[in-house]
Amino acid sequence: MKILLADKIPDFAISRLKSMGCEVFSRTGLTGKDLADAVAETGCEVLVVRSTKVPRPVLEAGHGLKLVIRAGSGFDTIDVAAADELGIRVCNCPGMNSVAVAELTIGLMIALDRQIVDETDDLRRGVWNKKKYSSEALGLKGRTLGIIGLGCVGQEVACRAAAFGMNVMYYDVIRRPELEKQLGVKYSRFDDLIEEADFITLHVPGGMQTRHMIGRRELALMKPTAYLVNCSRGGVVDETALAESLRCGDIAGAALDVYELEPTATDPEFKDPISHEPHLYGTHHVGASTHQAQDAVAEEMIRVIAAYRDHDEFLHCVNPEKVHVVGG
Prior knowledge:
Elements: E1 2-5, H1 11-19, E2 23-26, H2 32-42, E3 46-49, H3 56-61, E4 67-70, H4 80-85, E5 89-92, H5 98-114, H6 116-124, H7 130-136, E6 144-148, H8 152-163, E7 167-171, H9 177-183, E8 186-187, H10 190-196, E9 199-202, H11 216-221, E10 227-230, H12 239-248, E11 253-256, E12 280-282, H13 291-311, E13 314-315, E14 325-326
Parallel strand pairs: 1-2, 1-3, 3-4, 4-5, 6-7, 6-9, 7-8, 9-10, 10-11, 11-12, 13-14
Helix pairs in contact: 5-8
């Protein structure tokens, strides 16, 4: 079986795939026509991607392509509709990096409250401003966290927030009574959560159903002392509206790991104007990028490939029509 890796995966995973008898091609950093050419040239049966986009032309280039694996959870960078038309199955590796994303989410919450980035910046400029920074932090204990999306990541955030003594409420399209008891969280209507939370964290999939879920209306409902954290998908937040809210002081601040205008993996320049806004902290879409998380994702990717090769089964298939699917 020929496998094309369009993004970097751990070396141990490549060795394991080769030991399984797979022919592995590593062509990282390719996009568009270059990626399509690589798919055609290698004749791969399986294409593995992390952040690389897989549009229709790439799928059409693979005459022997049967399976695209997203080495992660979200699959909005893959044209699933086109894959379905072409008889190509798309699988992901859900939940493997949930802890890493949750850890970053909590880290950003603490950073916002304690203004860690601003304090570090002042120190690097030789400025000592203890009076300012010792009088503004409120702390996390006893404050209300609103989690939007109680999936794998949202649950891990809830666990960690409880350890900080926070009051946790959540909104999800599906109410989860069993998790409410297990995690000690309270279900809330969407608008009530927006209005009541001191911190709001987003853990929802990308796509049209969640696009600009947080926009002008929602930002206007938030407390002026509240913070917004997005480690899910860039399009979930209307950045134009967020920039206006930050500029006017309508909310206390925000932290983003994902952006509407996100560069490709090989583009070193960040052009999104949101980065210039006051009271915004940002990271480089690294929520899932810990060694622990990447190793776990790689293990699951290997399991998906083995199930397909050995049993013609598709684990975590997101377009399973007319295909025997196991896992999930």
